[in-house]
Amino acid sequence: MTVYQISQLISIQDMLLSIIVPIYNKSQYLESCFASLMQQGLRNDEFEIILINDGSIDDSERLCNDFIITHNNTNIRYYYQKNSGVSCARNKGIELAQGKYIHFMDCDDTLKRDSYRYIIDNICQDSYDYIGFGMCLLDLRTTEDIRIPDTPLTDGKIVQHTRGLESIIAVNWPSTCCLGLYRTEFLKKHGIRFPKGITIGEDVWFNFEFFSKNPNVCYTSCCPYIYWQRKESAMTTISKERAEKWFYSYHALLAHLASASNRNTAIQVGIRHVINHHVSVFLPKVLQFGIPKQQFEYWADKFSADMIIQTNGNSIYCRLADFLFLKPSYYPYISWLYNHLIYKTIVLVRKTFTPPPLLIRINTDSILAYYLNIDEKSRNTNLSWCA
């Protein structure tokens, strides 16, 4: 073995973090994402960035190559694959990861400055298989301004140490894969991967598989992740064309959870709460779709057959789901009522909501400038925030 090979092996062994970034037609957001990743206070030998281009047809490939050339770092790796979905892209990243921990980063989101440095120095311990944290939700659907909690990152600390199965029983496990660091060895040892073929809820499926293997878990009060909720988000876009994918994905996810809970009585109550939550998220979308009655009846039969919709939940959406999926012929009437009366009322209430004084307002044009340090005003704005 040459001196170079030995140095490379030592570098891999010392690598703390692999950041996996799946990319699909989000070129307009990549510069902000990339800039935030380079503002994390880590040495090049401490982290790697794995960019997985999932068949983008926009300018993403050029921006990825420019990012690599600009920073001239061997720890930034780029891979192109034929469009196969975000699950396949993340699975490819897991396969390639060499760091001790993995973080899944969405390419249209950002991180607070020095977040990784703070978490690694103050929270990471050898015993943890998962380190959970929170996020700032920035809703861009109704305004051109963003609202950011003005609290320092250094307020973050460990608030709970538990095990994975205890988290499932207590309904205290995350629904997204972006809000935590996963021990790479644990994922690879147990063969934990994202499910192929579903476009909604793949994070929930992945986290259930992970937490059901009973990892050593810690949760923190740190909120380094910045989630930008945009009009074209997969979780917010409504169209009849998306209806079939939503039905297929939610049926696959909820049937998987229901089957798992039937096999393990210890987690039945916790899983039922999770199913009820996702039914409450799913049903308003179903009503907004306004799909033909025959299509709804087809999926209602499948949901009922797999014991998904016997929710016994207390929320109005769970109760409505119990009714609709057992009596699908009422769907067209309730869908019309929801879209022409209830949903319009909800939108009106949201438009009249006034943000609390704790939050500050920053114009979206200053975000990239903040990460790139090219604007004096954005540099002087306190954006080291954490809840």
Describe the structure.
The chain is 46% helix and 16% strand. With 387 residues, the protein is an alpha/beta fold. The chain has an 8-stranded mixed β-sheet, sandwiched between helices. Helix 2 (27-37) packs parallel to helix 14 and helix 10 crosses helix 12. It is globular. The relative contact order is 0.12.
Helices and strands in order:
Blueprint: H1 3-14, E1 17-23, H2 27-37, E2 47-53, H3 60-71, E3 76-80, H4 86-96, E4 101-104, E5 110-111, H5 115-122, E6 130-132, E7 135-139, E8 145-149, E9 158-163, H6 164-169, E10 180-183, H7 184-189, H8 202-211, E11 216-220, E12 225-229, H9 240-263, H10 268-289, H11 293-305, H12 316-326, H13 331-351, E13 359-363, H14 366-372, H15 376-380
Parallel strand pairs: 1-2, 1-4, 2-3, 6-11, 7-12
Antiparallel strand pairs: 4-10, 5-12, 6-10, 8-13, 9-11
Helix pairs in contact: 2-3, 2-14, 8-9, 9-10, 10-12, 10-13
DSSP strand count: 13
Low-confidence stretches: 1-11, 355-387
**How do the strands of the widest beta sheet line up side by side?**
3-2-1-4-10-6-11-9
Measured by DSSP, the beta-strand proportion falls in 15-25%
Describe the global form: globular
Helix tally? 15
Whole-number mean pLDDT? 82
The portion of residues assigned to helices is 40-55%
Classify the secondary structure makeup into a structural class: alpha/beta
